[in-house]
Target: GAF domain-containing protein
Amino acid sequence: MADHSRTGSYRVRETLSQLRLRELLTEVKDRVEQIIDARDRIDGLVEAMLTVTAGLDLDDTLRTIVGAATELVDARYGALGVRGHGERLTNFIVHGIDERTRTRIGALPEGHGVLGVLLRQPVSLRLEDLAGHPASVGFPRHHPPMHSFLGVPVTIRGETFGNLYLTEKFGGHPFTEDDEVLVRALAAAAGIAVDNARLYESARTRQAWIEATRDIATDFLAGTEPGRVLARIVSHARELTGSDRAVLAVVADPEAPPEEDPEVVVAQWSGPGAEHAGRTARTAGTVLGAVLTDRTPVRCDDARRIDLGVPHGDAGPALALPLHTTDSTLGVLITLRTAGSAPYSDEVTDLIAAFADQAALAMRLAVAQRRMRELDILTDRDRIARDMHDHVIGRLFAIGLSLQGTVPRAQEVVVRQRLSDAVGELQEVVAEIRTSIFDLHGGAEHSTRLRRRLERAVRQLTAATAVRAELHVSGPLSVVEPGLAEHAEAVVREALGNAVRHSGGDRVTIDIGVADDLTVVVADNGRGIAEQIVPSGLTDLARRAEKSGGHLAVYPCRDADGVVTGTKLRWSAPLH
Model:
């Protein structure tokens, strides 16, 4: 009996021992699986860190971060919201939602509801059910259902860059504390990756600004047409600042003191609204005036504060910068963004301010270079004119005197006539040379032949008539622009032609005056305004005057008794 008891007790102990062994083996197995799982997750974290830090392109880096975080904690959906100005999201990168669903959902979130909680309080947030949070505002139509949630902030140098949002862990399980630890570690690596990408992007941006500045300076100093260079300045400013529009308003008189509220003209416009180029904008009491006076950039949250004289239907942030040198302000460079856009950052403001300063300096250097070239040309012209006056005219004059002294001693009438004709031709040559010398001193290429053209017109219209015409010029014809010179010749031809054909007089005087205006006065001693004058001719002269901002007047000349003694035509236009 005793032996039987001992045997039973032994079997019980053996059974209990086997149970404890199985429990121990199970526990060891679980621990080993946990260790393996932990190692796998650590390996996954390291791999995710290596992935997000591998690139330098900012957009690619942001997409990689979202994908790596989603895969790391077995989430179905993931997103990275980039924090903008205030408590708003300026970018929202999504993972796990196809393009068709994203389109049906509509606008991306701006930072309301639970998403806004992390914007206001940048600390990790883990929820079993999104709908249970007090800040939850639900989802828009066509949005996939989401329950479990994990949000972790991404910080860069102590400042919140954005937040990682992960939802719907596979298997319907909630996110664990281990998941939160892993994502927080990944977020730290993501912050470093984003910082590196931003530094790289900043370096590329600075390089782009440097290249733009170099191109502008090269164009100016190479003598490229100023309008084309100014258009490139505005285009570069719009593209490199990410603006919707860019405008260049130039000061009408750069030498005018800033306190006089100078008038500005919209010289260039890049982007929507380009038809407004050429308008005049006021500066008194406006941001434009402040920029011109203070010579410092001004940032505005509302572009309507920069009064360009045009409506701003989608006014957003604006930036106005002076184009100035040490002694003058040439204009204002303005960039405009649409409503809801982010304001201009300090970095962008500094870069475009340096660009504007260099552009203004290049403009000034180009003007100085052009003036130096003009001075060289004028110096050569003066030298040529002096040589012609001192040598050529002197020799021709001596030849003319010699021939003139020979005329009385000639026996043959034919010889005397030929000598007289030769003397007359020499005098005409001397007169033409003197005209050329005057135009050379004037320094304007287009006016070199203006006097000659007027004299030719007079000769052609009076050659076969008994009318004696006299041409008088006062003032420098060299300051008359080519277009105005064409008008002057047309006026002389039309007025003189009418006088020769219809006035019945025998004397016509043409007075050309150059002062603040170009004035052409043609007067005859005929019988007054003839009815036979072709109206279309005078209509053409009136149109030319109106186009040039001038006036045309035709009226009879009368003596003291009121008797008509002729007709006078007066045509004038301001010099530009």
Observations:
- DSSP finds twelve helices and 16 strands in the chain.
- The longest strand covers residues 159-169.
- Confidence is low (pLDDT under 50) at residues 443-448.
